[in-house]
Design a protein that fits this description.
Elements lengths: L2 E6 L28 H14 L1 E7 L7 H13 L6 E6 L6 H10 L2 E6 L8 H4 L5 E5 L9 H14 L4
Parallel strand pairs: 1-2, 2-3, 3-4, 4-5
Helix pairs in contact: 1-2
Length: 163
């Protein structure tokens, strides 16, 4: 069995989806400024000791915590730790060229969640990700999955690549 480390970054999110526990004004939104160094000091030896081969960054919206992701991942790299698989799950709306470049450099698999009417990913930048997939939200209000497959087909045709 391959050990995996799930790094939950916090509840803060830039969307306000009615179904979700994460929110823009979540209490931890003000705690984002806490230093990440104590976590890194514990995580690097833990990963090495337990043979962690996979890591997953997630939370509310991970890109709100981008500076923490960079610090944590750099610490792993500087410690000589190489993972078999690294994933980040994001709504993609905050993607910037800097994020895309770094995510590609690190070989991260990016799961981009399409939240329908609640908010959309920045598809122009999502298309530049080398390793990505798309997850769609469907609720009791939209119980039919076929329109989501049709949207995926349109995106793949528009951007000339599979998601």
């Amino acid at each position: 069995m391959k050990a995996q480390l799930n790094i939950f970054l916090g509840y803060a999110c830039n969307f306000s989806c009615g179904y979700c526990l994460q929110e823009m004004d979540a209490p931890d939104a003000v705690r984002r400024g806490h230093p990440v160094e104590p976590f890194i000091e514990r995580a690097v030896p833990f990963v090495r000791e337990h043979g962690v081969r996979r890591v997953d960054y997630w939370g509310g919206e991970p890109l709100l915590y981008w500076d923490r992701i960079v610090a944590i991942h750099r610490a792993f790299i500087e410690a000589g730790i190489a993972f078999e698989f690294v994933r980040i799950t994001t709504n993609g709306s905050m993607l910037a060229a800097e994020h895309v470049d770094r995510l590609n450099e690190w070989g991260m698999h990016v799961v981009v969640s399409d939240h329908g009417a609640f908010g959309q990913p920045n598809w122009d930048l999502v298309r530049r990700l080398r390793r990505s997939s798309v997850s769609f939200l469907f609720t009791a209000e939209t119980p039919h999955v076929w329109p989501l497959f049709e949207k995926l087909d349109r995106l793949e045709a528009e951007y000339g690549r599979p998601f």
